[in-house]
Amino acid sequence: MTSTQSSMRNSRAAGSPPSGGPVFLVVGRLSRPHGVKGEIIMDILTDFPERLKKGATLYVGPGYLPLQLMSCRQHGRSLLVSFEGYHTPEQVGALRNLFANVPAADRPPLPEGEYYHHQILGLQAVTESGEVLGVVREILETGANDVFVILPEDGPEILVPDIDEVVKDIQLEKGQIVIALLPGMLPGE
Predict the structure, then answer these.
(1) Which residues make Cβ contacts (< 8 Å) with residue 120, sequence separation at least 6?
(2) 115 within some domain
(3) How many CB atoms neighbour CB 111 within 10 A?
(4) Taking the CB of the first residue and of the last residue of the chain, which one, N or C, has fewer CB atoms within 10 A?
């Protein structure tokens, strides 16, 4: 984690609805039953897998069915989990390919200056002089740094690298992200 904007925005919530933030955040995808005691493999889709432990409640599937974790243990790059009331492979198999979620309000707080993707999406991008560039509609994860895709009212999208020289301030309370434009950053330059 470096810079004011930090890679913690790589939370798997990119694509969450920007207005007001999501109600739930995806933490895993239930893959397939394992063994005969009702365990299922869960692919980890969170930067905070340590919060997935016995007694935690996950909200599964499109209906957000609340299920209490009875066990949770590492299995390669995934987790083996079991839920209260699911004791056979057939029972837990009904959860195959469903997403496991936690309430957004339960997400771990980030250090000051670090943000989740869903907090950035939907912000209005403005220059240091206050000129409106557009709205952050997508965040591309490139490896070196994230890239904000800004959609102006007219014209082509603007790609803004998430680096200290360009992203000067993120003001969640104002709903804005302040950008210092570099030569060639705007289309047609």
Answers:
(1) 9, 136, 139, 148, 170, 177
(2) no
(3) 8
(4) C
DSSP state of 170: E
Sign of CA dihedral 135, 136, 138, 144: positive
3-state secondary structure of 7: helix
What is d(CA 4, CA 112) in angstroms, rounded to the nearest whole number?
Answer: 8
CB 157 within 8 A of CB 32: no
Please give the average per-residue pLDDT across 35-51, as a whole number. Answer: 91
Q: Which residues pair with 59 in a beta bridge?
A: 66, 101
| CA pair distance 11, 27, nearest whole angstrom | 9
Distance, CA of 166 to CA of 168 (rounded, Å): 6
pLDDT value of residue 185: 87
CA 104 vs. chain centroid, Å, equals 10
Q: Which two tokens stand for residue 31?
A: 């893959």
Q: Number of structural domains, the chain? A: 2
Encode pLDDT of 134-152 as tens digits: 999 999 988 889 999 999 9
What is the model's pTM? Answer: 0.60
Please check whether residue 25 is in contact with residue 12, taking contact to mean a CB–CB distance below 8 angstroms.
Answer: yes
Q: Which residues pair with 17 in a beta bridge?
A: none
CA neighbours within 13 Å on the CB side: how many for 183?
A: 0
Q: When comparing pLDDT for 92 and 104, which is higher?
A: 92
CATH of the domain at 144: 2.30.30.240
Give the separation between CA 152 and CA 166, rounded to whole angstroms: 17
